[in-house]
Amino acid sequence: MCLSPNTVSATTGSGAPVAFGSAAPATPGVATAGNVSLALGAAGAGMKLFSALSSAGAQRTADNAQADAMATNALIAERAAASAVTSGEAQASDVAIKGAQTIATQRAALAANGVDINSGTAANLQKSTKWVTDQNIDTITANAARAAMGYTTQSENYANNSGVYRAAANSVSPTTAGATSLLTSATSIASDWYRNQRAGVQ
Length: 202
Prior knowledge:
- It is built from 3 helices and 2 strands.
- By secondary structure, the protein is mostly helical.
- It has one domain.
- The chain has a two-stranded antiparallel sheet.
- A hairpin with a 5-residue loop joins strand 1 (9-11) and strand 2.
- The longest helix is centred in the middle third of the chain and has 80 residues, at 33-112.
- It is rod-shaped and about 105 Å long.
């Protein structure tokens, strides 16, 4: 039996006739438009995951650094408050000693001149010197207390801010950030796949 070249055919593995000389039907390959889109989405998801982890880690490090700096400032201010009190006490003591020495010198001079040091002008002179001395001591003590209070307030504010930054650092979780990024990317990739399926994109 002689067959015409145009009538000779064969069957494919699926049983569909294919004429000799014609191209075999294309089978879906790996690098289809749909697969490329999904691959790009997966690559993007990886980059977003890395970015989320890096960003969360950097934020946590920055917050902890701020907390440490604030804690250090709180300690410095606390020491400054103690120093202000100590310095004030030392100055007040010096003034008291000098005041006592002045009165002693006055009494000696008055007595050397035969003046009754316990009455009249002599007594008033000593009282005046004592009053001035006491006023100076009170002023020094008040200034020291005011300065110490200011430093103490600063210390408390720094300590509070340190706590805020520390809490912020502890609230940052690279794991949570990474999981959130993966979930978002997975949802996006699944949506793309479903859309491709509905559009017939292989």
